[in-house]
From TrEMBL:
Keywords for the protein's UniProt record, in alphabetical order: Oxidoreductase
GO molecular function (one): oxidoreductase activity, acting on the CH-CH group of donors, NAD or NADP as acceptor
PANTHER family: PROSTAGLANDIN REDUCTASE, PROSTAGLANDIN REDUCTASE 1
Name of the protein described by the UniProt record: Enoyl reductase (ER) domain-containing protein
Species name: Agaricus bisporus var. burnettii (strain JB137-S8 / ATCC MYA-4627 / FGSC 10392) (White button mushroom)
Length: 341
């Protein structure tokens, strides 16, 4: 077989604000690979099928500094969650035809020496592989484990969820509604508001056209706050919090590109006995992964849990998709489709 293209999405320049497609991330199709003859030397060859684009990736577009994840390296492919299929293998326990899920480079083909950071997966429920990067993957697990460990929900609680139209927020909404709780949720477009209503949200609103403070004053006080935004919305939620409220800090996307607005009323954490808990889902994965995969994919296949996807085709579009996620213009879980099987 003649060599084939092995295109890549490369980290080219660290941005100071929003990443710029074609500058921050660049598409490179100069490399080739011979799938039949490339030496494996005890390793295995993967064909990339789908890749995930997530807000946390913005935090890796930096030269250094403290963080829970290392920066992307200039001149090399960025990485994110992905699903691929094994083409050839000389690795014990890995065979051609296996599907792997985990952290993958943004390139069409890659050679791996181990399954570190990856698992072999089987789709027992007929779901598209892309779903294992969204509702049945990291975002879904984030919602599942964050709620399970930190919500401490009780009957009568009022829940406020930000970015409720996204893959994490929409899962949180559906978990809370399954417990019979009142849910207030915000998103940044009317299309996302309609989706939130379709999954049972009691009060769904567009924060760009409606005052979050006014909604919370009318529909609160709130007992559980799932925060994906931070900044001014976190400040409003603190004002609207009940005594003994639980704040689950999952992300603060409002500050990922600008540094974020100051929160001026943090003393309310003391005055209202608020518990504020941040978490990184990977630190809880081993403890709760079996329960998650034993329950959530089946519910998704049966339609008991709803999800939306926004699939873009081609590694050359990675920069555009990244920008859409950070600006909130994507219409569902952002996926880059790299190749069919």
């Amino acid at each position: 077989m003649a060599p084939v293209r092995n295109a890549r999405a490369i980290m080219n320049d660290y941005p100071s604000g929003y990443p710029e497609p074609g500058k921050t991330l660049v598409y490179d199709d100069s490399q080739t690979i011979d799938l039949d003859t490339v030496p494996l030397n005890g390793r295995f060859l993967i064909k990339t099928l789908v890749l995930s684009i997530d807000p946390y990736m913005r935090g890796r577009m930096r030269s250094g500094g403290p963080s829970y994840v290392p920066p992307f390296e200039l001149g090399k492919p960025i990485t994110s969650g992905g699903v691929g299929v094994v083409i050839r293998s000389e690795k014990e326990g890995v065979k051609a035809g296996d599907h792997v899920l985990g952290l993958m480079g943004h390139q069409e083909y890659s050679i791996r020496s181990s399954l570190e950071g990856m698992v072999i997966i089987q789709d027992k429920h007929g779901l598209p592989w892309s779903v294992y990067l969204g509702a049945a993957g990291m975002p879904g697990f984030t919602a599942f484990v964050g709620w399970k460990k930190f919500a401490h929900s009780k009957p009568g609680d009022v829940v406020f969820v930000t970015t409720g139209g996204g893959p994490v927020g929409s899962m949180v909404i559906q978990i809370a509604k399954a417990e019979g709780l009142k849910v207030i949720a915000s998103a940044g477009s009317e299309e996302k508001v309609a989706f939130m209503k379709s999954i049972g949200t009691d009060v769904a609103f567009n924060y760009k056209t409606t005052s979050t403070r006014e909604i919370l004053e009318k529909e609160g006080p709130i007992d559980i706050f799932w925060d994906n935004v931070g900044g001014e919305i976190l400040e409003a939620a603190l004002d609207a919090a009940n005594v003994n409220a639980r704040f689950i800090e999952c992300g603060m996307i409002s500050g990922y590109n600008s540094g974020g607005a100051p929160v001026r009323n943090l003393m309310l954490i003391v005055g209202k006995d608020i518990t504020m808990r941040g978490f990184i889902q990977t630190r809880h994965f081993d403890e709760h992964k079996d329960e998650f995969y034993a329950t959530i994919p089946e519910k998704l296949a049966k339609g008991e849990i709803k999800y939306t996807e926004d699939i873009t085709h081609g590694l050359d579009k990675v920069g555009d998709v990244m920008l859409s996620v950070l600006k909130g213009t994507n219409k569902g879980k952002a996926i880059v489709h790299v190749a069919d099987e």
